[in-house]
Write a structure and sequence with these properties.
With 237 residues, this protein is of the alpha/beta class. It has one domain: 3-Layer(aba) Sandwich (Glycerol-3-phosphate (1)-acyltransferase), CATH 3.40.1130.10. 37% of the residues lie in helices and 15% in strands. A seven-stranded mixed sheet has the order 1-9-8-2-7-3-6, with helices on both faces. Helix 1 runs antiparallel to helix 3 and helix 3 packs across helix 4. The two termini are 13 Å apart.
C-alpha cells in the first residue's frame, strides 16, 4: 500500500457536473481519460488477455480506496483497459453504485441526506445503476435491480461491481454486501460470467485480472459473491 496523494480531479468534476441537473450522460472515454492522466506514474494493467472476448460479463473488483486515493481512479484504469480491449463505445461499462449516504440528525430530527437525490443523478450521468444494498431504501434498490436485469437481456457492455461497497478499503478485503450474491447469481442465470480483478499498489495503481468464473459455476455456488471475493483475494501476487 502506498501513501501517494492523488490530486482532486477537478476537471473530471467539471466535465460531469453539467450532466447532473440535465439528466444527460457523460462520455466514459472522456472522463476516464481525465482521471488517468492525473495518475503519475500511470496505472499498470496485468493479464488483460484474460478479459473475455464478449463484453457480456460482470467485472468484479475489490473496493481499493484510501486517504489520498479515490476509488474513481482505479475504476478509470479499468475503463481504459476495457477501451483497449473493445474499442470506443459508450458506455464502456455499466457500474453498479452501492454507496449510501446516512441521514442527517439535527437534535431529534432525522432528515434524509441530500445524497438521496444527488446519487441517482450522478449515477445516471455516469451510465451507472444506484443500488443501495445496505437496506436504506429497499424499494429503490429493487427497482434499480429490475431495470438492470431488464437491460442485461440486450446489454453489449460489461456490468461493473465492487461487492464490498464502501466497507472495502486499501490493504484488506471486506465481506461482500448482502444482496450482491443474489445479483451476481441472477446475472449468471442470464449467461454473464464474472471477471475478477484485484486492485493494489506497487508505487503505482495496478489492476490484475483473473480468469473468468463461468456462469454455470456462479449459479451453483453456495454464495456467488463470496466465491467472487475469494477469487479476487487470490489474485494478489
Amino acid at each position: 500500500m502506498s501513501d501517494k496523494i492523488y490530486p482532486a480531479p477537478w476537471d473530471f468534476i467539471a466535465a460531469l457536473f453539467p450532466h447532473v441537473p440535465r439528466l444527460t450522460r457523460a462520455s466514459h472515454e472522456h472522463v476516464s481519460a481525465l482521471l488517468v492522466r492525473r495518475m503519475n506514474p500511470e496505472p499498470a494493467v496485468e493479464f488483460a488477455d484474460r478479459i473475455p472476448s464478449s463484453p457480456r460479463f460482470v467485472l468484479a473488483a475489490n473496493h481499493y480506496q484510501r486517504k489520498g486515493l479515490w476509488i474513481a481512479y482505479p475504476a478509470a484504469a479499468i475503463m481504459r483497459a476495457l477501451l483497449a480491449k473493445f474499442g470506443p463505445r459508450e458506455p464502456l461499462i455499466r457500474w453498479i453504485v452501492t454507496g449510501n449516504w446516512p441521514p442527517w440528525h439535527i437534535g431529534p430530527l432525522r432528515i434524509p441526506s441530500p445524497g438521496d437525490v444527488l446519487l441517482p443523478r450522478i449515477a445516471h450521468a455516469l451510465w451507472a445503476y444506484d443500488v443501495p444494498f445496505a437496506g436504506a431504501d429497499p424499494a429503490h434498490a429493487a427497482a434499480s435491480i429490475r431495470r438492470l436485469l431488464r437491460d442485461a437481456r440486450t446489454a453489449s457492455q460489461p456490468f461493473g461491481l465492487f461487492p464490498e461497497g464502501v466497507a472495502g478499503t486499501a490493504g484488506r478485503i471486506a465481506p461482500p454486501l448482502p444482496g450482491t450474491d443474489r445479483l451476481i447469481a441472477m446475472l449468471a442465470k442470464q449467461g454473464f460470467p464474472v471477471l475478477p480483478a484485484r486492485i493494489y499498489e506497487t508505487g503505482r495503481v495496478v489492476v490484475r485480472f483473473g480468469h473468468p468464473i463461468p456462469a454455470s459455476e456462479l449459479v451453483t455456488a453456495n454464495n456467488a459473491a463470496e466465491l467472487t471475493m475469494n477469487r479476487i483475494r487470490d489474485l494478489l501476487p
